[in-house]
Amino acid sequence: MVKILYSEEEIARQVQLLAGQISAHYAPLVSISYPLVVLPVLKGAFVFSSDLLRRVTVPLRVEFLRASSYREGTVSGGLELDIPETAFLSGHHLLLLEDIVDTGRTASQILATLKGCGPASLQICALLDKPSRRVAPVEVHFRGFTIADRFVIGYGMDLAERYRELPYVGELEECTF
């Protein structure tokens, strides 16, 4: 059984708000010839990114990156990171799109790697922010919702590759496979 924390409608409203904030922030900084480079973190942020990017009104380019720290459960393991070539990122304004920022370890490692690419700026947009669990200093510049310490699924987020297809963000009331 899944307890719904954020409905489809609540998420849609928040995504629209985030798109407006991002568009307003980057409008004076980017152009067609020098677009905002958006970096959705796969796999979790793909649904959020798809909905968000269709509402952003500034020129942008999408470069996917893959970061994985959860394997077959709810406990974080070692980080595996695959990022685009530096030539695609250097000198551009970069916006990292995350499904959730939890402890901050993953985001911190991604940021450190991306800073080495020489961006004009680097910021994070996350659908969910869980600051109560933060152990690495990470600032979420654009946030959809701040949540308590819960393991969430749906809207692209998973438990062992399950539940990504749910159109809402929920919490499992009982963990069964």
Provide the fold topology.
Blueprint: E1 2-6, H1 8-26, E2 36-42, H2 46-53, E3 60-62, E4 65-70, E5 76-82, E6 93-101, H3 105-115, E7 121-129, E8 142-146, E9 152-153, E10 169-172
Parallel strand pairs: 2-3, 2-4, 2-6, 6-7, 7-8
Antiparallel strand pairs: 1-10, 4-5, 9-10
Helix pairs in contact: 1-2
Task: Characterise this structure.
By secondary structure, the protein is of the alpha/beta class. It has one domain (2-25, 34-172): Rossmann fold (3-Layer(aba) Sandwich). It contains 3 helices and 10 strands. The protein has helices spanning 8-26, 46-53, 105-115, and strands spanning 2-6, 36-42, 60-62, 65-70, 76-82, 93-101, 121-129, 142-146, 152-153, 169-172. The strands form 2 sheets. Strands 2, 3, 4, 5, 6, 7 and 8 form a 7-stranded mixed beta sheet that branches. A hairpin with a 5-residue loop joins strand 4 (65-70) and strand 5 (76-82). Helix 1 (8-26) packs across helix 2. The longest helix has 19 residues, at 8-26. The protein is globular. The mean pLDDT is 90. InterPro entries: HGPRT, Hxn_phspho_trans, PRTase-like, PRTase_dom. Keywords: Cytoplasm, Glycosyltransferase, Magnesium, Metal-binding, Nucleotide-binding, Purine salvage, Transferase. It is found in: Cytoplasm. It comes from Gloeobacter morelensis MG652769. One of its GO terms (molecular function) is glycosyltransferase activity.
